[in-house]
Write a structure and sequence with these properties.
heterodimer, A: about 425 residues, alpha/beta, FAD/NAD(P)-binding domain, five-stranded parallel sheet, 7 helices, 24 strands, globular, B: about 100 residues, mainly alpha, Arc Repressor Mutant, subunit A, two-stranded antiparallel sheet, about 10% strand
Chain lengths: ~425, ~100
Amino acid sequence: MTRHVVILGGGTGGTLGANRLRRELPDDVRLTVVDQDDAHVYQPGLLFVPFGLTHPEDIVRSRRRQLHAGIDYRQDTIDHVDLASQQVHLADGSNLHYDVLVVATGAVLTPEETEGLDGPGWMEKVFTFYTPEGAAALESALATFRQGRLVVNVVDMPIKCPVAPLEFCFLADWYFRERGIRRGIEIVYATPLDGAFTKPVASSALAGLLEEKDIELVTEFNTGEVDGVAGTLTGFDGREVPFDLAVVIPLHSGADYVGRSPGLGDELNFVPTDEHTLQSKVAPNVFAIGDATDVPASKAGSVTHFEGEVLVENVKRFLAGDELDGSYDGHANCFIETGFHKALLIDFNYETEPLPGHFPAGVGMPLLKESRLNHLGKLMFQWFYWHALLPGRDIPGIGADMPTAGKESVTSPSTPEDPT
Amino acid sequence: MTTRTLAGATVDINDEGFFTEPDEWTREMAVELAQEAGIDELTENHWTVIDFMRAQYFEKGTGPTVRVLGKTSGVTVKELYLLFPKGPAKMAAKIAGIPKPRGCI
């Protein structure tokens, strides 16, 4: 009997999941990927667009063409999923019946949830680089920005690639120094976190870099309101952060159709998902991968990549009626671009925070330390993304489980107590 | 991991002062914790949030973030900041005797 696996979303998780599943599953299992458009964005590239280091057209490819033979591609908007009848309802009125559903529709930006953010001044004085349009508009704004206060603000977690806003600060510092105008520009990083980053050892290393680069750090700032005309961010606690140019990372939610699908998502439209098996908690034949889930890992491509292996194994086991293999450990790694052709690399999982040392073993790329090699690694990654990661090939030496061989053990610096 | 004494009992807390064993918490301890955090009196609204946080923790394994609190607790984000000025999710989690909400990833 033919069975049907429907994958919602043709981004990183949907594409690599579909390609791996096609290789692993017998031909009598049909595979269909659904997405609303045919533009697959290499999202890590967005960071470089505002600085003229890459262009939107260089980081977008066809979604359909990343999928291997034997996978159907359906371009349509998803209206909603009916878990009880195992149907995906599409906007054109047709339905897709599934035996297994994989939710891989990622996260969307919801600037409208923050008072004033998408009001007057949006895309004039207040930008985001998390969309190709926003990144391109910001490129023009930065090119004519010669003096004043640049504020980079994260409204609240979770966001995609939690280090990207920090990288933006580092690159802005480099960009203005190269142009010889850094002296007249203040760079401020306002974050809802109590430090530069979520994990203590990396947080203190990154805070050190901010200080070195003369970037002001404002912590525990929860943006309540944005005034894009006067140039003010106001926190819920009443604090004000003035700006001449603001780069804001808006709140994120799961895809809209998740909210229209009874029982599929949580309050923020993310799919409640087992953090080890990637089976959803909403129905046994529904799995989720990447930014679309609520697992306590970063919303990042590397997480999605490492989850891919577990997802495919578990979908296979589910179809065979076998017990699931709960092996995802929360492994994430990312290059953190720090400007001047250097980058840091961090590698961590649910249990182990980013530590110094080398990756993937005792000899390799330096961890939590600026180096040119890491910068080259970051640049090379785009090639790996299109040619190895999406096709679902393993990258030699980089497995789903976090390696511990090259890591130093470090005692976390104790977090200072609240001054309350 | 360390311990401290609250309302006459010994409880387990982490380096940041969050409970590691939420079952050890009592309402008397909340009053003491609130005073340490600068809240002289816990009003009915404070208790609504504290009870909601604990219920969510026991149901989902983690306390809600401010954003989720604002969407689901019946108290708006603005009010939450008036009740718990130093960041509602963290401050309320500490007083409610549950671990730091995991939303902070």
